[in-house]
Amino acid sequence: xxxxxxxxxxxxxxxPPPEWERRRGxxxxxxxHVTLVNExxxxxxxxxxxxxxxxxxxxxxxxTEVLAxxxxxxxxxxxxxxxxxxxxxxxxxxxxxxxxxxxxIYPGGRK
Length: 111
Hints:
Layout (H helix, E strand, L loop, with lengths): L21 E2 L2 E11 L3 E8 L2 H11 L5 E10 L7 E7 L2 E2 L11 E2 L2 E2 L1
Antiparallel strand pairs: 1-2, 2-3, 2-4, 4-5, 5-6, 7-8
């Protein structure tokens, strides 16, 4: 069984290693989800590179109605592969990928 690829981002000026692109024959993708004050949006966008997904989440998390933007990684056509990668609040990456540093915001809304 193949190991999960690392969830840390490759610097913007470097290409990710080939093993990040495929896992057990499935394509890895990164999805961005946005939590607003009054709603949780479905998937905002899907990216083929973690760096692009994180950049989009960082940017969109700075919107006035946005509480947080989250990035999740999963493998197409493989159930159970969804993993939290990052959460951004006001443009700042949070320490834990699925909860804000202040512990009041989760990808599903406020606690």
